[in-house]
Amino acid sequence: MPSTPTTIFMIIFCLMSLASMLQNGFVITVLGREWMRNRALPAADMFVASLAFSRFCLHGISTLTNLLASFGFCYQANILGILWDFTNTLILWLTAWLAVFYCVKISSFSHPTLFWLKWRISRLVPRLLLGSLIMGGLSGIISATGNIIAVQMIISQGSLGNCTLGHTTLDFFRYTYLSHAVLMWFTPFFLFLVSFILLMFSLYRHVGKMRDHWPEPGDFRTQAHTMALKSITFFFIFYILFFLSLISFTTKAQTLQNQWLWPREVIIYVGISLNSIILMLSNPKLRKSLKMILKHPCCAKL
After folding, report:
1. Which helix or strand (DSSP H or E) is residue 5 part of?
2. Which ranges of 107-219 would DSSP assign to H, the alpha helix?
3. Alpha-carbon gap, residue 275 to 101, rounded angstroms
4. Alpha-carbon distance 276 to 295, whole Å?
5. Residue 256's closest CA among 70, 78, 65, 84?
6. Contact yes or no for 267/227 (Cβ under 8 A)
7. Which residues contact residue 25 at a Cβ distance below 8 angstroms, ignoring those fewer than 6 apart?
């Protein structure tokens, strides 16, 4: 049985995941109704809805995986780990494309490529979403293939009584993980980082131009820059925490009994939950729907 501190962190993690699933479910419901009503969604809302659905799945998968692994159901946890890889990669690519979208739409650079993208990126969003799904699928295939090969290595080497079994299997997993991480995870992080830097530089240039006649509170471009940078800054924090979860995932098999596993998971997924809240509050439709719910008589009585 888990120790008392471990049990406490397990309960905190499960409650936090449930709250995050409810919050992302709210986003999916609101934007889903908008899509059903208009038969279309703005490009930015398509990214938000896709991220909300992916994070809803991620919290559910993570909770089941951690609980199964902690209570010794490692085989079932490994199967769910493949879905975790798929969802994980999908979220990273969606976040990167959302940052690129903000950068292209809001930045004030005069490069011809950016002008071309400004007019076409909204129409490219469905293709970017499809590309993210494809990258997530490739990630799941790589994860499943690695697990199958590792199991075959264990069976073959175990039947031969090979004492180097543990080292060989561990080296294989490390090599698979590094190749997988470079291809699937660091590429979207690079896209995100470039977009973040360009947005900061664009805001710096815009503010520099307005020094002689400081913009009034209604200056749209400054507000757009500021809003986008606030959202992307929280996304950047989310990325750092998320990469911690990716690194910790490679050592889960060795640290399942470690008392710091659940506290670490709580810290990492708190960042993801906070990022989802920031994304929801920065969306006008979601803010309006949330205010309507809070003003409902049932909520007012609480």
Report:
1. helix 4-38
2. 112-159, 165-184, 186-209
3. 18
4. 22
5. 70
6. no
7. 52, 56
Cα dist from 162 to 49, 167, 173, 277, 296, whole Å: 50, 10, 18, 51, 67
Distance of CA 257 to the CA centre of its chain: 26
Alpha-carbon span 19 to 13, nearest angstrom: 10
Other C-beta atoms closer than 10 Å to the C-beta of 207 total 13
Return the beta strands (E) in 171-297 as ranges: none
pLDDT by residue, tens only, the chain of 302 residues = 566 777 888 888 889 899 999 999 999 999 999 888 888 888 888 999 999 999 999 999 988 888 887 776 666 667 787 888 899 889 889 988 988 888 888 777 777 777 788 888 888 999 999 999 999 998 888 878 777 776 676 666 655 555 454 556 556 666 666 667 667 788 888 888 888 888 778 777 766 665 555 545 555 555 655 666 666 676 677 667 666 666 555 555 444 445 667 777 787 788 778 778 877 877 778 888 888 877 765 554 44
CA distance 212 to 9: 54
Q: Could you tell me the sign of the dihedral formed by the alpha carbons of 41, 124, 196, 208, in that order? A: negative
| Per-residue confidence (pLDDT) for residue 21, from 0 to 100 | 92
